[in-house]
Design a protein that fits this description.
The structure is a single chain. The chain contains 10 helices and 9 strands. Strand 8 and strand 9 form a beta hairpin. The N and C termini lie far apart (about 100 Å). The chain is elongated. A 7-stranded mixed β-sheet has the order 5-4-3-6-7-8-9. The protein has about 300 residues and is α/β, with parallel strands linked by helices. Helix 3 packs across helix 4. Among the domains are: about 160 residues, Vaccinia Virus protein VP39 (Rossmann fold), CATH 3.40.50.150; about 50 residues. The protein binds S-adenosylmethionine. The site of S-adenosylmethionine has 25 residues, from strand 2, helix 5 and strand 4.
Amino acid sequence: MDNVTAERDKLKQKLSEIRANEPIHKPVPNPLQTSLVNHLVARDAVKSKEVEEVMRSIDRGEFSPKDPYVDRPQQIAFNTTISAPHMHAIQLEILKDCLRGAKKALDIGTGSGFVALSMAKMMKGDDIKVYAIDHIPKLVEQARENIAKSHKEYLDTKKIELMIADGREGLEQHAPFDVIFVGGSVKEIPEVFYEQLAPGGSMVIPVGEYFQNLTVVHKSRSGKIEKEPVMSVVDSLGGFSPLKSSFLTLMKKSTMSERVYLLMLIFTQSITTLFTKIFKKRNLNYFILLCPIFYILFTTINH
Ligand SMILES: C[S@@+](CC[C@H](N)C(=O)[O-])C[C@H]1O[C@@H](n2cnc3c(N)ncnc32)[C@H](O)[C@@H]1O
């Protein structure tokens, strides 16, 4: 009987060892995704088991319509890109220690939604939350669809919440964040980003206009900020596009007369394009001259 108990304990021990070594996140059964991650491991962009597992468990094909398994940034929509796989890997490696204990994260310029999902998968517990924001409403919708393809539970349980917002202001109503991931570049780090980072939190952000540095910011428990450029990001490696104003943001921040002027400008430009197409030989761009007249008329009537 003792032998049987000993044998059973041995088997139990073996089973728990096997379980401990099993990936928490199942790899996707796609050989192209497997090859891509193998390449990232060989290139030393993926260094840890955590990042490797997460990257094996998300099919990039669900986030990038074009050449998803090539290690380059790719166009997604509305003149925006999904970052290169090696860049995602490097950024997640930088944040992995902080993500492990994080409860709340912010993904600014979520684009495809890939990073929001990766971060949510690296955070532990049922009470975690990733706020993912972008300023293009259709892109936010697309990110939601991308995530829902294989990871709908992250949306249903509200572990990931997607929102339309101007990322240059952070997301004050849900601050502070243990982790802030910034997907677009900035000339200088906005003060609000420091303010919205929780004590003990980390942020990764591409900084610079012509020469960008991927920069890591850490806020100590006492609130002291430490900032360190970790690598330069040059074009061949895929420089980041900047966080900028969308048409909606521009409209929101404009006065009423500026809004009317903007709309008139767009209206006149559309009419001009249409007329130019109809009367093929004529270029009717002088229509644009009507805009200032409209503007003067409007402001005169308005006052
Ligand atoms: C280089 S892409 C990164 C996308 C994402 N990290 C990924 O890999 O799929 C930059 C993103 O920032 C977004 N963006 C640009 N300006 C923004 C702003 N002011 N507020 C929020 N998002 C912005 C763009 O729409 C785009 O999706």
